[in-house]
Design brief:
The protein is an alpha/beta fold. Helices cover 31% and strands 26% of the residues. It has a seven-stranded mixed beta sheet, with helices on both faces.
């Protein structure tokens, strides 16, 4: 994973600061929409949250949906455990280490703000993990900042200073995710936060199984 962690970005390693900034930007409202409109987890299903951060997504899931989240940051995972306790299962791990954590199959996998922190090789590893972890009718749903035709000067200024160093176009994200899935839906976003920002949601279905 490659990301900028110098200067003011360093304070975002604090779980409390990170969550506070997210709330200030209006992420909580978008996360509610993200779950309701894009993730749409089936009743009684299991969800794998890849790069879960402080597990903020859990706030918006139905009570009968099982939650499993992992993140590279020990601080974020500690904060998630303190907030949610037994409501979910949480691990500090990288994408490379995650397969050993659970043998469960999931109806949904999410990666919110993760792919733009990964280079192409790392991103394909995330996609392979999700495809292997999902049920045959499951879906991977991702969200990331993106350069789109709607990206104005202010939005470009923010994207260029993101901690993640691999902000792509929606088509580039779709090409990466498409390696592991048969069906890809791309949803460009603008005006979904309290700041000028462009992004996209990828909904990937039909996980491709890798022969062992």
């Amino acid at each position: 994973m490659s990301q900028r962690t110098t200067g003011l970005r360093a304070v975002l390693s604090s779980a409390a600061v990170y969550q506070g900034v997210q709330d200030l930007l209006g992420a909580r409202g978008f996360q509610r929409r993200f779950v309701r409109e894009f993730v749409r987890p089936p009743a009684g299903s299991q969800l794998l949250d890849i790069g879960c951060g402080t597990a903020a997504l859990l706030e918006h899931l139905p009570d009968d949906v099982g939650y499993h989240g992992f993140d590279l940051s020990e601080r974020y995972i500690t904060a998630a455990r303190q907030r949610w306790g037994a409501r979910g299962q949480f691990w500090a791990a990288s994408v490379a280490d995650a397969p050993r954590l659970t043998g469960a199959r999931f109806a949904r996998a999410t990666a919110v703000g993760v792919l733009h922190h990964l280079d192409d090789t790392e991103a394909r590893g995330l996609v392979a993990l999700a495809a292997a972890a999902l049920t045959d009718d499951g879906a991977l749903v991702t969200y990331d900042p993106a350069h789109t035709p709607a990206t104005g000067r202010a939005a470009r200024f923010l994207l260029d200073r993101d901690r993640g160093q691999h902000v792509r176009t929606p088509d580039a994200y779709a090409a990466l995710v498409g390696v592991g899935f048969g069906s890809i839906e791309v949803v460009p976003l603008v005006g979904h936060l309290r700041i000028p920002y462009t992004a996209c949601v990828i909904i990937a279905r039909g996980p491709k199984r890798v022969a062992s």
